[in-house]
Amino acid sequence: MKTESKHTPGPWKIGDFGLILGGKNDSIIATLEGINRDDNAKLIASAPELLEACKEALEKSHDPAVEIILIEAIAKAEGNQ
Q1: Domain, as residue range, for 54
Q2: Are residues 51 and 68 in the same domain?
Q3: pLDDT tens, 31-81?
Q4: Which of 4, 9, 14, 26 could disulfide-link to 21, CB 3.0 to 4.6 Å?
């Protein structure tokens, strides 16, 4: 299931001061604040890899219930839900 992504390509990484960086020039993807900033940054920075993992799992799945969950997660991540 290869579709052209509309988001900044990964990998994304955690920068200083709550920044999430990505793309060829380490563009700022997001700026985070708050007491959970570091944990939220880890989750957000892993988003491109998690999306790709969902797409790969969908291709290999033989379980309709799992496929529904993956399709919904992919749609949400790509803004189609």
Answers
A1: 47-81
A2: yes
A3: 999 999 999 999 999 999 999 999 999 999 999 999 999 999 999 999 887
A4: 26
